[in-house]
Amino acid sequence: MVKVAVLGAAGGIGQPLSLLLKQNTLISHLALYDLVNVPGVAADLSHINTPSKVTAHLGADNLQEALADAHVVVIPAGVPRKPGMTRDDLFKINAGIVRDLATAASKYCPKAFMLIISNPVNSTVPIVAEVFKKAGVYDPKRLFGVSTLDVVRASRFVSEVNPELNPVDTRVTVIGGHSGTTIIPLLSQLNPTQKFTQEQIEALTHRIQFGGDEVVKAKDGAGSATLSMAFAGARFAINILEASVGGKTGIIEPSYVDLSAYVEGGNTVKAETQDCAYFATNVELGKDGVEKIFSIGKLSEFEQKLLAEAIPQLKANVESGVNFINA
Ligand code: NAD
Ligand code: LMR
């Protein structure tokens, strides 16, 4: 049995994400949890003729049932940005939501892969880690901040500058974190290799860093990215399933992870990032989660400058998350 729980399943991300997961045949049970509207979402999805069973879990009294025996837990629960807000402005509300959901997960499915979408990801991931540490069940290999949307956007935006590139096959490694200038696309490592002018590099980098703001502005108060996030979240969740139960090897994707010394490569990236505790970089996924964390490699001078600027911000974001649980 492969159970996937989506927490916040009735939301703007939760609904299309659940739809995409319903199409995946590695999943046998899709458990949808929210504080509102989730019975309707589950009833609707349950008519789709794929093998998985869909169940609805409404309200905190039913959270245990949603989580019990889950193999993967995806968390898009929380409030999204409105124009003029930063992701850090969401901390006040979302930190508590993520803490409470993580507390339940640490009790009812301590071995699940935890995929964190709720913003600010730079801080919500350390929150989940601290909750699991307190419960004595933390495994850094099983915790992921979902930064896939940055990678998805980067591939697309690069292909708009050079239409000869197919965005599906264009790989951009995006390192750092998931907010503004902590998002660092490594255009110097683009695969296939491209020669962009410095002006193009700076414009592309800015667009990738602030892609979320484009959507927030266009939605004009009605929220942030939901459909592209559902696409990105499903892609990452399916990669975890392919690696952990599908037996697929060699899956490498950027994700915001704990650079714990217990994971191969963690110490290398720690050294490359002036001792960041969490960092988004390429990770290889295996049956137990993070199999290997990859070095950020050789950066251009421009990328080195971006990294130096991002590091204090990343450290402060992590500290906020850690203090929220331990202070
Ligand atoms: P939304 O408001 O449309 O949906 C959020 C859902 O969470 C709602 O259905 C709400 O009822 C539910 N919820 C709230 N508190 C809950 C709780 N305690 N338990 C269970 N469910 C709860 O918002 P959205 O557009 O889906 O965005 C959700 C989050 O994802 C936001 O924090 C947003 O900033 C973030 N996000 C992250 C990325 C990323 O790249 N990581 C991308 C887009 C959005
Ligand atoms: C995004 O990158 O689209 C999300 O983090 C949502 C946001 O607030 O921009």
Ligands: nicotinamide-adenine-dinucleotide, (2S)-2-hydroxybutanedioic acid
Q: Looking across the biggest beta sheet, what order are the strands in?
A: 3-2-1-4-5-6
Bulk shape: globular
Number of strands: 11
Q: Tally the helices: what do you get?
A: 11
> What is the third-level CATH name, the topology of one domain?
Rossmann fold
Give, in order, the helices and strands. EHEHEHEHEHEHEEHHHEHEEH
Main beta-sheet annotation: 6 strands, parallel
The overall pLDDT average reads 97
- Helical fraction: 40-55%
Low-confidence stretches: none
Full CATH superfamily name of one domain: NAD(P)-binding Rossmann-like Domain
Based on CA atoms alone, the radius of gyration comes out at 19 Å
Determine the strand fraction and express it as a percent band.
15-25%
CATH class of one domain: Alpha Beta
Quickly give the CATH architecture of one domain: 3-Layer(aba) Sandwich
Structural class: alpha/beta
Determine the N-to-C terminus distance. 39 Å
